[in-house]
Design brief:
The structure is a single chain. By secondary structure, the chain is of the alpha+beta class. It has 3 domains: 237 residues, Rossmann fold, CATH 3.40.50; 99 residues, Rossmann fold (3-Layer(aba) Sandwich); 138 residues, Alpha-Beta Plaits. It is 30% helix and 28% strand. It has 15 helices and 33 strands. The protein has an 8-stranded antiparallel β-sheet. It has a 7-stranded mixed β-sheet with strand order 2-3-1-4-5-11-6, sandwiched between helices. Strands 18-17-23-14-15-22 form a 6-stranded antiparallel β-sheet. A hairpin with an 8-residue loop joins strand 14 and strand 15. Helix 8 crosses helix 9 and helix 12 packs across helix 13. It is elongated. The protein binds guanosine-5'-diphosphate. The site of guanosine-5'-diphosphate has 17 residues, from helix 2.
């Protein structure tokens, strides 16, 4: 018999949506939540976004720029499964955050705009999914508009993203001529009826393309074209292979229109059936199986000041094994301390709620005052750390410039706390009092300046500084490290976690330093340890 943990883990489906901005991620999310019964009305996701703006003023910036800086977790039940959808921030500048969310999911859903095809950000996100062979399903959106020829589009996905496509649904027409989709595995035809298609019950479904009524609905010519196209597809494309999908080698493809809620339920039905439940996870010592009794998990995201009334932070922990129950204690591996997980949050789509219990695949939010960092592992006492949650070397650097010198303490605190969220990194050079901020995108400096003022009452600006790139320093030999430290002190700094970092004024300088210190490792990412 399966244990409680094993059966709960088996029904979890934890995933994220990856897409280029404007492909329809938010709209699709909304429709998925509708099917989960999590929200009553279309428009609620945007409504919730607006409500959250009210709770934290800095998000006014997010609104101004039309970007989504925060991500969240939505949980809903569907067909006997529990679906966890981890939202990824939409703006390109926030890539790092997105990368880390993708370490916390078991699969991904890729949304492609039928008119635009494979776009630049989708390519990048796909590269990240590749690192862990994350299984991916594809939804080709906006079929109610004219777009690329579906066969050519699949070719594009295959050649640009280097993944086999297995169409599961196939469109009948497009744009003004969109009539429906054929389900290639069941043979069923689902008609497109704008304003309906809300659920299966509202839709017209024929058992096959041979149903005589279909011809009456779409016309003889279109039916003939469809038959021809289906033959072509059968000959030219791949059929669904569950193992290839799970290995990340093949993506099942669906066509539809998110805004019209068309084709979405077919996708969701297939998703909950075939998408993987939580998989084993690598740690520093061993593989952790989800069905193990004891709780383990790792933190993939920190969000500061979610609620201005409580100046605390929420650490988002992905559960990898065992069962979480409200009020339990867990072992915080990095500090070696037990932490009481009181008031942990779960993320039912209706609202954040106090968690009663949670299982592998679920995410809980842990309130803390800065003791918990991205990449931290929790267990019930075992000394293990989950691996693979990267911290990327920033590519842009600025020195913080304070307008009121009396606010130095607040500035330091603000920079350190905001850097815990992971979008920026904070460095203190060994030999100066400078406060250096590193980021992967320019926009992040604006966000930090705005939040420093809004949340910490500090008026600070950022000025250019002569740093081109950063590398984390590793060296097993204490003597070599000490020598290196002395010789290069002018270029060394400590990051927020106290790790040694080399801040290079140029690539050439970095290269020379590396050549001169062959026994020292220069790392472009820091694995959270
Ligand atoms: P995101 O940036 O990926 O989250 O995209 P959104 O969900 O905000 O959608 C971007 C725009 O495309 C919005 O104006 C949507 O209303 C629109 N949109 C989304 N799905 C469809 C669709 O199926 N058909 C059409 N015509 N527009 C859509």
């Amino acid at each position: 018999m399966m244990t409680d943990v094993a059966s709960e883990a088996a029904r979890r489906r934890t995933f994220a949506i990856i897409s280029h901005p404007d492909a329809g991620k938010t709209t699709l999310t909304e429709k998925l939540l509708l099917f989960g019964g999590a929200i009553q009305m279309a428009g609620s996701v945007k409504g919730r976004k607006a409500a959250r703006h009210a709770t934290s003023d800095w998000m006014a910036l997010e609104k101004e720029r039309g970007i989504s800086v925060t991500s969240s977790v939505m949980q809903f039940p569907y067909a006997g499964r529990i679906v966890n959808l981890l939202d990824t921030p939409g703006h390109a500048d926030f890539g790092e955050d997105t990368y880390r969310v993708l370490t916390a999911v078991d699969s991904a859903l890729m949304v492609i705009d039928v008119a635009k095809g494979v776009e630049e950000r989708t390519i990048k996100l796909m590269e990240v999914c590749r690192l862990r062979d994350t299984p991916i399903m594809t939804f080709i959106n906006k079929l109610d508009r004219e777009g690329k020829n579906p066969i050519e589009l699949l070719d594009e996905v295959e050649s640009v993203l280097k993944i086999q496509c297995a169409p599961v649904t196939w469109p009948i027409g497009m744009g003004q001529r969109l009539k429906g989709v054929v389900h290639l595995l069941t043979g069923e035809v689902h008609l497109y009826e704008p304003g309906r298609n809300f659920t299966r019950q509202d839709s017209t479904i024929f058992a096959s393309i041979d149903d005589p009524q279909l011809e009456a609905r779409i016309g003889a010519q279109m039916l003939a074209e469809l038959r021809e196209e289906l033959e072509l597809v059968a000959g030219a494309s791949h059929s669904f292979d569950a193992d290839k999908y799970l290995r990340g080698e093949q993506t099942p493809v669906f066509f539809g229109s998110a805004v019209n809620n068309f084709g979405v339920q077919l996708l969701l039905d297939f998703f909950v059936e075939h998408a993987p439940s939580p998989r084993p996870r690598a740690t520093t010592t061993r593989q952790v199986q989800p069905e193990e009794d004891r709780l383990t998990g790792f933190v993939f995201k920190i969000q500061a000041n979610m609620d201005p009334q409580h100046r605390d932070r929420v650490a988002f922990m992905r559960i990898c094994s065992g069962r979480f129950s409200a009020g339990m204690k867990a072992f915080h591996v990095r500090s070696g301390k037990e932490i009481k997980l009181a008031n942990a949050l779960t993320f039912m789509a209706s609202d954040r709620e106090i968690a009663e219990s949670a299982y592998p695949g679920d995410v809980i939010g842990i309130h803390n005052h800065g003791t918990i960092a991205i990449g931290d592992s929790f267990t019930e006492g075992e000394l293990l750390s989950f691996t693979g949650i990267p911290n990327f070397a920033p590519e842009l650097f600025r020195r913080a410039r304070l307008r009121d010198p009396l606010k130095l303490k607040q500035l330091q605190k603000g920079l350190a706390q905001l850097s815990e969220e992971g979008a920026t990194q904070f460095f203190r050079p060994l030999l100066s009092n400078d406060l250096i901020l590193g980021a992967v995108g320019m926009l992040q400096f604006d966000v930090v300046a705005y939040r420093l003022k809004d949340e910490y009452g500090v008026d600070a600006g950022f000025e250019p500084v002569n740093i081109a790139t950063a590398r984390w320093i590793r060296c097993d030999d204490p003597k070599t490290l000490e020598e290196f430290r002395e010789k290069h002190a002018a270029h060394l700094a400590l990051d927020a976690a106290g790790e040694l970092v080399y801040l290079a004024p140029s690539r050439v300088n970095l290269q020379l330093a590396q050549e001169r210190a062959p026994n020292v490792q220069f790392m472009a990412t820091r694995e959270h340890a």
